[in-house]
Design a protein that fits this description.
With 532 residues, the chain is of the alpha+beta class. Helices cover 48% and strands 16% of the residues. α1 packs parallel to α7, α6 packs across α7 and α8 crosses α10.
């Protein structure tokens, strides 16, 4: 029933997008962004003559200040979405009524179009010549007879053409009707078979068929719409005798938390300064995200199960990421919980602290998930799961066509960045590609504050202090006014310490995704590939 899962996912995404658009944080962010755009437009339209130069500079400073406010609004909106991961699902009915996927058998009535209207039959009255009158009646009898004979011949020819046209119209009408009847039979047969498959699937789920139960709960979890950079990749297994559902869920990496606390505009240096977020706050927020995803997943399963298919739920939360100590891909388990239906259903999720709630359920949660400190799973998924009733689902991989910035070719990666910075106002040429990544020396065409800009772009391990020092050296060597470091793999805290007031700007993966969405309307994603 993959097509049903895709349809349901698309509907859930549409509903969630509408809900996000109506949040106060989103409305505030849009208002600030509009004000920033208006300020930038005003600065661009200001006159360039000497007597209005001061006004132009004032408008430009206001535009840059508004741009910083817009960037801060984006950060606040992101944090608001992360803080509401659990609460946002509580107003959604997670049960899926499979009957809604059945399609009606009604078809539009047969429409013959112009073929339904017979052609007007020629009338002899329209052809017969008028009777002679007066003296013409005595002298013109032979002429009238001649005219009548000619009219009769023309009439008969017209009538023959009408007969042929009517026969042709009736043949075409019959052919169109046969085609309609055939199309209707095929459509009804297709819909009947489709609806029968929906009925079969619904009956199999109600009858606790293990494979169908797994598919149903995959649809439920697939409906759960998270932020774009959350993986939504999971494995499910169902043990029918114990009514036990096993879940192995891929958690988002810690990089989903903005590493920038706020942006500040420095009028003297004409630069947006990024204030880094404290590492302790990032850890606390990440623990909260893990706990919320865990409780949200179990809640969605329990709420969607109106047939009593599941008596127990076991959840292992794993993360696909890079171990910064070794540079290798790892998959630690950061949270694990096993709970029964009655215990979990009695919890009032609107009022709980997610971490405390997991402890109440005797779950284990990593105290240092930022260090990838694993916990001992409550279940061994591969050992405890029944292979016959286990399936893996990657919701985004099945339906998502967004470009994955991790797997883009080097040329496509450089082209995407060049287009982004070009739209943002830089004049940028071909990249200089090397072992350290891609590099550009671009030009900021603005008067007074413009000049050369050095851009370094990395796709690999998180950028540290060494990458910042390398960029600073390149800025000095090029006589540039500014440097930009793009690091798809993230930015280490010591990289921000290395800024030391330099005219450098650091952009991590989530920030790059946001810039692409805002400036290019490109919804990109970051999904790490597993090593073989």
């Amino acid at each position: 029933m993959g097509i049903i899962r895709d349809m349901q996912r698309a509907h859930a995404t549409q509903v969630a997008d509408g809900q996000r658009a109506n949040t106060a944080a989103a409305q505030q962010r849009d208002l600030i962004r509009r004000n920033a755009d208006l300020a930038i437009a005003a600065a661009q339209q200001a006159a360039t003559d000497a007597e209005r130069q001061r006004e132009r500079q004032r408008l430009y400073a206001e535009a840059r200040t508004a741009d910083a406010a817009a960037a801060n609004a984006e950060v606040r909106a992101r944090l608001s979405d992360l803080d509401a991961l659990l609460l946002s699902t509580l107003d959604v009915d997670d049960h899926i009524d499979l009957d809604q996927f059945k399609k009606p058998l009604t078809v539009p009535p047969f429409d013959p179009g112009p073929l339904a209207r017979p052609l007007p039959e020629p009338s002899w009255d329209s052809y017969v010549p008028p009777q002679p009158r007066g003296m013409g009646k005595l002298l013109g009898a032979p002429l009238h007879q001649q005219q009548t004979a000619n009219a009769r011949r023309v009439y008969e020819e017209a009538h023959a053409r009408w007969v042929a046209a009517e026969e042709r119209r009736e043949r075409q009408l019959r052919a169109r009707k046969r085609s309609y009847d055939e199309s209707r039979r095929k459509y009804e047969a297709k819909m009947t078979a489709y609806n029968a498959e929906v009925d079969r699937f619904a009956a199999a789920v109600a009858g606790a068929d293990p494979a169908s139960v797994v598919e149903y709960f995959a649809m439920v979890l697939g409906n759960s719409v998270y932020p774009d950079d959350f993986p939504q990749h999971f494995r499910l297994a169902y043990l029918p005798k114990q009514k036990h559902l096993l879940i192995e869920y891929h958690l988002p990496p810690i990089e989903v938390i903005p590493v920038v606390k706020e942006y500040r505009y420095d009028r003297v240096r004409d630069d947006l300064t990024a204030v880094p977020r404290d590492a302790g706050e990032i850890r606390r927020r990440y623990v909260q995200i893990i706990a919320q995803v865990t409780l949200r997943t179990v809640h969605e399963v329990i709420e969607a199960d109106r047939g009593g298919l599941v008596r127990q739920v076991s959840f292992n939360g794993i993360v696909d990421t890079i171990d910064r100590r070794t540079g290798r891909f790892v998959r630690p388990c950061l949270v694990s919980v096993k709970t029964d239906r009655e215990t979990f259903a009695a919890i009032k999720l609107r009022r709980v602290d997610p971490v405390a709630c997991l402890k109440h359920l005797h779950g284990t949660l990593s105290v240092e998930p930022d260090q990838l400190a694993a916990v001992t799973p409550k279940i061994d998924f591969d050992r405890d799961a029944d292979r016959d009733f286990t399936e893996e689902f990657n919701v985004l991989a099945e339906i998502d066509e967004r470009p994955n910035l991790v797997t883009l070719t080097d040329a496509a990666w450089e082209r995407q960045l060049a287009e982004l910075f070009g739209v943002m106002g830089l004049e940028i040429g071909p990249a200089d590609r090397g072992a350290g990544g891609s590099r550009w020396v671009a030009t900021d065409p603005r008067p007074i504050f413009g000049g050369p800009v050095v851009i370094h772009a990395l796709r690999g391990a998180p950028a540290g202090a060494a990458a910042v020092h390398a960029l600073a050296g390149a800025v000095t060597a090029a006589g540039a006014t500014k440097g930009i470091l793009v690091s798809l793999g993230g930015i280490e805290p010591e990289a921000y310490d290395a800024l030391a007031g330099r005219p450098l700007e650091l952009i991590d993966g989530p920030a790059l995704v946001t810039l692409l969405a805002h400036h290019l309307r490109v919804k990109a994603r970051i999904e790490l590939a597993r090593e073989p």
